[in-house]
Amino acid sequence: MIGYHTSYDHNLVGMVMTQGRREDVVNIGIGIKEISAPPGMSGQDFAISLYHKLTPLERTFIAPEQGEEVVMRRLCVILALKQAYLKAIGQPIGFDWSRLEFNVPEKKATGDGRPLAGWEFRVWTSELGWPIPGSDGHVVQSYQCAVAFFRRTRDTKFIWQTDEKELDSWVQFITLDQLVNVADKLVE
Hints:
The protein is α+β, with helices and mostly antiparallel strands and 188 residues long. It has helices spanning 22-25, 43-49, 56-61, 68-89, 164-168, 176-186; strands at residues 2-9, 12-19, 28-34, 100-103, 108-111, 114-115, 119-131, 138-150, 157-160. InterPro entries: 4-PPantetheinyl_Trfase_dom_sf.
């Protein structure tokens, strides 16, 4: 069987897919979060507006004294991890995200205070860029991405993909035309 999930945020669409036995492919999800505050809003204010999705411990990771860049990156890591996990377990949009806690420094994840044993989380950053018409400049958008995959182990595993070669071994970047060409295979 093929198990897959899709996600998007602004200009990035992602799809995670795996093959195997049914029980090995049903719990997979992807989360994507642009590392940017909405126009006209500071990163600090944006983080505060999302406090309801975070636990008290997670809020300490995005304290204002960390600086706006650090706050935005850490906030987006946590939100991408939560989104990936929620998609993997099939929870609806209205799920209370604060029931999940990702203690990233200690590489721990819990749901309702219980360890999320057996889960593997892969985390990486993607950048999109394109030229600005009529100028020599480029627009670059950074996105925090995470995949949640139930591996049936006793522990929780976090894999931080920072090496481009390593990332290329399991992540493919394709155009919309390429995706449309394979869409039929996903419904078979």
